Amino acid sequence: MEVAMSDPILELLAAPPSPSMSVDENAVYAGGRRRVRRRALRRTGFGLGAAAAAAAIAFAVVGPGVGGDALPADRPSQMEGAGKAVSANLFDGTYAVEVIPGAPADQPNVKFYKVDGGKRSLLAGSSADANVVSMGTGSGADGIMLGTAPATLAKSLTIAPGSKGGIQQDEALLPGTDYKAYALKFDNPADVETYQGTIWMDDTDSAVVRDAMGNRLASTKIGATDTFFVHRDADVMGVFTADGGSTKQLGTSSITTLGTGQRHEGEDWSWLSITLLPEGSRNVTFEWADAATHHDAVVTDSSGTDGAVAWATGTAPGDGPGPRVTRVTWTDKAGTRHTEAAN
Fold first, then answer.
1. What pTM was estimated for this model as a whole?
2. Residue 304 has what pLDDT?
């Protein structure tokens, strides 16, 4: 017997995709490694074997590389021909993700649980590939997205245009598998609907950046520790820094400028400003506001970005608003000089 369920997430998935993305310039996602980051750091930027419940909970799996429907909550974890299930708890043990190695092709190989009082209630199951980031959400997990990511994922940024609150992230290795358990917690539960994907880096020093499907994005090193990338299909550019990162929607003008900064308690602001310019641009200068010190812009040709990347760092007193680039001047391929306001 088929049972019709009304779920706002499923309705969202049925809607036609937006033609473009917009990223809140004031939202900066600082990715953690194993635990959720809770640091005394002010950050700004411009630019997602236990008892089972008696009834199934609607849970929509979203994103790439996933399949399968919600499972009855009394479905056993072990399947005929499958290996031993491996699970990990997330967000201080309130949720769990389980991977079943060798699960039959017609059976889910990932299960999601809510944990309460030491007992796990099955939310859903899905089929997920180990080379992609796949996430799910729905009833029983308000404001939470659960999923899997490649075991090699080292840093990640959540693309959630229109999100009005913060996003926390937690992850854990699933030993003996090619997966990590991966979860997002939205401070504003309704913001789950704004999730559009995850951009991530692997655990090497090669500056390789990938989208949720595992496709390599155009990227280049910025200084000693940071990596700039462009995701043309999503109209987004961004940067992975030593302890976080930021994204920004590509603008409609000739240039797009992203700024990200931080200050520790009692210390000055440190700031990184990056501008994507037309290919072949040179002799780039930045005009700063509220900066105590700043360095000259460095220009880097980034293969595959259809442009040149200019970046510079600046500082400002910690009790002020922080430094920012207000205007960018450059020379194009033909030798013409241009000046535009940083957008």
1. 0.74
2. 62
Whether residue 176 is contained in a domain is answered as yes
Judgement on whether residues 228 and 328 belong to the same structural domain of the protein:
yes
What contacts 17, CB < 8 A, 6 or more positions away?
Answer: none
Within a domain: residue 202?
A: no
Domain count, the chain: 2
Q: Which residues contact 73 (CB under 8 A, 6 or more apart)?
A: 52, 53, 54, 55, 56, 57, 121, 122, 123
> How remote is the C-alpha of 152 from its chain's centroid?
15
CA–CA gap between residue 180 and residue 59 (Å, rounded): 20
- Give me the residue label for tokens 């913060």: 166
What does the alpha-carbon distance between residue 55 and residue 86 come to, in Å, rounded to a whole number? 23
- Taking only the tens place, the pLDDT of each residue in 57-70 is 344 544 444 433 33
Q: Which residues constitute the domain of residue 184?
A: 49-195
Q: Over the stretch 82-126, which tens digit does the pLDDT of each residue have?
A: 578 999 999 999 999 999 998 888 889 999 999 999 899 999 999
d(CA 69, CA 110): 11
Is 79 inside any structural domain?
yes
Residue 133, domain member (yes or no):
yes
> Which of 12-16, 144-148, 211-215, 338-342 bottoms out in mean pLDDT, i.e. has the lowest?
12-16
